[in-house]
Write a structure and sequence with these properties.
Blueprint (H helix, E strand, L loop, with lengths): L2 H9 L4 E16 H4 L8 E13 L5 E14 L5 E16 L3 H30 L12 H24 L7
Antiparallel strand pairs: 1-4, 2-3, 3-4
Helix pairs in contact: 3-4
Amino acid sequence: MSKDTAAETQTVAQPAMNILAQYIRDMSFENELSKKGIVGEVAPEVKVQVNLDAKKRSKENQYEVAIKLHVNSKSKSGGEPLFVLELDYAGVFQVTGVPEEQLHPFLLIECPRMLFPFIRRVVSDITRDGGFPPLSLENIDFLQLYRSEVARRQGEAQNSASEEDKPNTQLN
């Protein structure tokens, strides 16, 4: 290895991430089953929706990343709502050594990956404390989620661009 190559290797900062804080920003759990006075064993069908958000904080290299979960459970037999859980869980991250063009995917893939085990525990505890078997969330592929969102946004941009190209046929 030449001296120039060694010097270049030393000057390139390695990506680093530290979790400075993590917290529940907002949470709601509605036990629809108990509102109706129904008790007993139920076979739930669970749907989970995930939204991600990231924003820069006022301090240098600090970002807040939020995962918003919407969990809707219905009975398999009758489709009756069992419970609804909404969770907005955030973390504050110190991120260094990540090039600007890679920062957006880093914040929306790697940071949520670090928060997910804690979210899984919160969801499990809340559903158990709400009178249901603990819900153990399946792993979320944040890379695939990110790619799907980028593709969706590109599709919307193409559709809006093609709409602008169409002649205006509005009649007065």
